[in-house]
Amino acid sequence: MLSPPTTTCNMADTGVVEALLLGLEKAEDGVDSLELSSSLGVEHQVVVGAVKSLQSVGEVISAEQRSSKHWQLTEEGVEISELGSHEARVFECIPVEGLLQSELMKLPFGKIGFTKAMSNKWIRVDKTSEGGPLIFRSVQTIVDQVREKLLNVLNGKDAELEEKEKSELKKRRLLSEVTVKSYWITKGSSFSTTITKQETELTPEMIVSGNWKDNKFKPYNFEAMGVPLDCGHLHPLMKVRTQFRQIFLEMGFTEMPTNNFIESSFWNFDSLFQPQQHPARDQHDTFFLSDPALTLDFPQDYLQRVKKVHTEGGFGSQGYKYEWKVEEAQKNILRTHTTAVSARMLYKLAQQKFTPVKYFSIDRVFRNETLDATHLAEFHQIEGVVADYDLTLGDLMGVLHQFFTKLGITKLRFKPAYNPYTEPSMEVFSYHEGLEKWVEVGNSGVFRPEMLLPMGLPEDVSVIAWGLSLERPTMIKYGINNIRELVGHKVNLQMVYDGPICRLDT
Amino acid sequence: MPTVGVKRDLLFKALGRSYTDEEFDELCFQFGLELDEITSEKELISKEQNDSKAAGASDVILYKIDVPANRYDLLCLEGLVRGLQVFKNKLEAPRYVRVSPVSGQPQKLIITKETAAVRPYAVAAVLRDITFTQERYDSFIELQEKLHQNICRKRSIVAIGTHDLDTTSGPFTYTAKPPSEICFQPLNQTKEFTATELMSLYRTDSHLKHYLHIIEDKPVYPVIYDSNGIVLSMPPIINGDHTKISLKTKNVFIECTATDLTKAKVVLDTLVTMFSQYSSQPNLKHVFISSSPHSESTETVAQLLTRMCLLSKLTGVGDQIEVEIPPTRSDIIHACDIVEDAAIAYGFNNITRTTPRSYTVATQFPLNKLTELLRQDVAAAGFTEVLTFALCSKEDVGDKLGKKISETGAAHISNPKTAEFQVARTTLLPGLLKTIAANKKMPLPLKLFEISDVVLKDKSKDSIFFPGRCAEIFVDGKSVGRLGVLHPNVVTRFELTMPCSALEMDIEPFL
Description:
Chain A is of the alpha+beta class and 506 residues long. In chain A, 35% of the residues lie in helices and 23% in strands. Chain A has a 7-stranded mixed sheet, sandwiched between helices. In chain A, α5 packs across α7. A 5-stranded mixed sheet of chain B has the order 4-7-10-11-12, with no helix packed on it. Chain B: Keywords: Aminoacyl-tRNA synthetase, ATP-binding, Cytoplasm, Ligase, Magnesium, Metal-binding, Nucleotide-binding, Protein biosynthesis.
């Protein structure tokens, strides 16, 4: 709700307003605010106030800002105009018998005054006298020109001074040039000497009595900022998450339970057929737990099958041919992807009679990598999984098209890629109209048989999956460049307050 | 993804035609590569150091190409060119064949049992009748470096040594000796050093110091000798100066020592196949027989695969195809790897889109469903949602809250880069307070909320007691202690062997 800016208009000023209007009526072309203030005997600021309040009630007056320069005395200049210049005072204080230079220098005006008086040839120094140099007057009388000039300026006769003289006094810091802003006031299109009072608010009394018909109302200033609402706000990343969640639910995808940040290496890596010497399992990329350090509880027969497929192969595979160690699999980590949960869900699915499923999750994952403006150690992954008989790459593309269409993206291209646990793998690109190029929007693939078959899924069941980060589309949607302003405690709260609703398909 | 830098003009010359940057980018897209950066040596030095240091550097255009992490056959110009030419039907898929030496026996590398203690495996090969130019030589060295950085895991798993065969004579011996007994003139040095001395010498070498730890503390160090006792190399650190390769070298002896035999073979195969125009190791390996995986005709599929260097032909039995996997394709370990290559050759974007037909009804995860409902109403009540980090410092959940960290039940990270990553949060409170502290300029009141996970150690998995044989004691609804059979780990740590049970209880509630 807008409210018009308040105008201060107390009793004393109303008099000034009236005087201004009357003065303006009499004037031929206009009134200068400075002149008016001196003729009314009020401070210039009061006149300025009156001008401003008249300006807010419509076209009563027209006021043009002007600035002019005036010379005025500095504090030191004022002192000199009263007491005389330093050099004059030096002259005055020298008695007939002369004054010791050392004595003179003790006086406040001594130093500057001495030099000036010497150059004016008003005094002379006898260096030969005993007891030190002695100063004598060398003329009878002097004219304190500096003081006279300053007094002229003080009395408003500064035009009588030449520019050169004014600059010199300015150099000595006795004069300064100030800019004075004033207004040239002229009659406006609806000029009148009486101001009709404008109402600011429509009141219940006016409505009931019908008085509103006779009143004039002050127009609203729609340029002014409104009063901010006192309300709550949802976080932009979470708003985007809600939309993605909605999209998956609309497509019939069931939400996976991802409320476990800590995962064993077994589910996060080994069950996904990611080899134990893979760089992603390094200290550099993964957060390992020191407490609790290990998980010891695994479905043992499944674990043996996983071990076999890594070391020797089987299930149609050569395997990686390395020594698989259970100690590596036992190590607890902060999950590096939510695919670990997908693995658990697929294993669970394989323990019963197979039915086709569609799963999704949107939750936090952790990478121990170098941080920069767009990368943090914690971020959110969006993942979709479909398991069914005889799914093909064409099916994966179809699902991706359906998913991205709900995001308003219809032009997609697919590029061969590599993931340790999918084959084929495809990077998904969409065409960015603004940048006029193809940009990567996600990663996808078909899970490897080495992952699915040891779980006990039927041979003709294929599982397709895709993923993308939550932060990237959020930063693009909300125009944020530094991820720290979005995620974490250094969040830009104003951005959260101001964030618009999240509409992903526009 | 590993990145390979190639001189653009050399690349185009080898490919037999020029491309615009856009055309080459498109070719990469179809094949599964990424043209990451177009730059020059000069630009690179300018970026990393400054313009003045770049002054004398080369202006020659470099393409930086990202290759998939499992494709060691694409890590050099030779491999890239071969892959692309076969893909575009400009070259026939090569077949690699082992060639015997013109005269005499093949070379021998004898591995002694001492190596088992430090670096058990080694494989070797000879590349004969090679002609090096400066470019080929640079590429050869660069490929070794790339392999060292990737599959070799910085030389810890596999280390490569290449030698001029004509400066030395076999049979070669790969053994391990105490460092003081190894003495030779290493590459680029003018005198001999013992291995112990070399460890000190290379401690300040910016390149080699990173590899010393691999063997430094072992009682014996790996070393390869020729029949005259000349040291070829001390893997994984440095080669001997005697057998160093030059542009004039015609026959190259390659040895790979390793802690993983499979990887050593892959590395050797890669080096040899990349640089052989004439000869290489055999390994007509794993001939797969698979049914046609596509709706395309079997002939078409065979053609597609051959374009990916996977020589294929019909067996004549039904729709079976026999696929020959060359030694360059160590990434092929299952039929699905072959399927992907067929799809790439066909063109991913040429595949018809279909939709899975199964009908599924979705369920929300109850915890998330409740969270979504609560979020709406808490915001409607005037609170602003924040999203704070799950990792924080020990202080954040301990001292700052007036608690001892050991009492919090927090999970600890073993390799935090800074204090901010020491523990997983046990409460949401510190995150909210830190948010307020970082937003002091905002007008009051600040009303914040967060609904998210915290991490607490499972108390029921109490490490003191044997699971299923312990209990918590409650008096008037309050927990006063625990009792149960002690966990065998606990018993052992106190140097006992008999089963023990225990009870521990707080008596103050009974006052």
